[in-house]
Amino acid sequence: MARHGNSAAFLALVLLAGFVATSGCSRTDDSAAPERPRIALIMKSLANEFFATMADGAKQHHAAHAGQYDLIVNGIKDERDLNRQVALVDEMIAAGVDAIVIAPADSKALVSVLKRAQQAGIVVVNIDNKLDEGVLAEAGATVPFVGPDNRAGAKQVGVFLATRLQAGDRVGVLEGIRTAFNGQQRKLGFEDAMSEAGIEIADSQSAQWEMDQANRIAAAMISEHPEIKALLCANDSMALGALAAVKAAGRSGEIAIVGFDNITAIRQAIRDGAVLATADQHADQLAVFGIEYALQILQGEAAPADRETPVDLVTAENLKES
């Protein structure tokens, strides 16, 4: 009986050992499976509908391709909070992500931390607001830009506005943050269009991309330059601020307003005839373009290089068609 009991115990041990060995093999197989790359999307203020739309587009793309990559979405509360955006990049470096797709709040201030990311072996793709080429060169860094030609987009808007004005008319410009490349380019695009049409820019000031600041500055412009016939705004948030200022001054229908970004409120204002035009850089796809390019680079399917994405004029006419 004792021998029978020992044999049974021995058999149990053999079976247990076999189970452990089999389980161990299973874990080894799982760990050997390639991990999905982790991509961090870092944006500017999610309080701005443009970037909220960008985030939603990225999340929808990830949901449809969840087996291909993991996505981490971050944004700052205020587009001027550069320190927080730098901190977010540092956090993603520490987390060991495979790629960072970033819409930098400043074209110069983010270069240093993004170079650190590259030195850590992280693929970096720049979207929306192009990093400053001079600062990149000084840092010895190359970061591909995936985004629209902001100057060309703003010029389209300005040319359309000019068809509603006459040579010799005067206008005002509400600029974005002056150290942001996209803000600089949009201002240049507006200037290109006004110069070609013989229209004078009476005043040009930065409203920092913000609606409230745009409202105050536009109100002051209207007061100081009552002759202006239009306000050219480097984003739609500022266009909404300008619209409120025009209404408050009792100048609705007298001062035309144009913007850039094609957010929901502006589309409705265009339909209502309160805003003349804006530019659509396809916010819902902009981050997706960057994510897909980052994946191509990670998979060795593409070498880092700039890629231009669409930007289209939006008017009451083509909104009716859509």
How much helical structure, as a percent, in the residues? 40-55%
Broad structural category: alpha/beta
Assign the CATH topology of the largest domain. Rossmann fold
CATH superfamily of the largest domain: Response regulator
CA radius of gyration: 27 Å
Topology:
Blueprint: H1 2-32, E1 38-43, H2 49-64, E2 70-75, H3 82-95, E3 99-102, H4 111-119, E4 123-127, H5 133-139, E5 145-147, H6 150-162, E6 170-175, H7 181-197, E7 200-206, H8 211-224, E8 230-233, H9 236-248, E9 256-258, H10 264-272, E10 277-280, H11 283-298, E11 307-308, E12 312-315, H12 316-321
Parallel strand pairs: 1-2, 1-3, 3-4, 4-5, 5-11, 6-7, 6-8, 8-9
Antiparallel strand pairs: 10-12
How would you sum up this structure, described in words?
The structure is a single chain. The protein is an alpha/beta fold. The chain has two domains: 38-147 and 284-308, 3-Layer(aba) Sandwich (Rossmann fold); 150-280, Response regulator (Rossmann fold), CATH 3.40.50. It is 51% helix and 17% strand. The chain has twelve helices and twelve strands. The protein has helices spanning 2-32, 49-64, 82-95, 111-119, 133-139, 150-162, 181-197, 211-224, 236-248, 264-272, 283-298, 316-321, and strands at residues 38-43, 70-75, 99-102, 123-127, 145-147, 170-175, 200-206, 230-233, 256-258, 277-280, 307-308, 312-315. A six-stranded parallel beta sheet has the order 2-1-3-4-5-11, sandwiched between helices. A four-stranded parallel beta sheet has the order 7-6-8-9, with helices on both faces. The radius of gyration is 27 Å and the shape is elongated. The termini are far apart. The relative contact order is 0.13. The model is unreliable at 1-32 (pLDDT under 50).
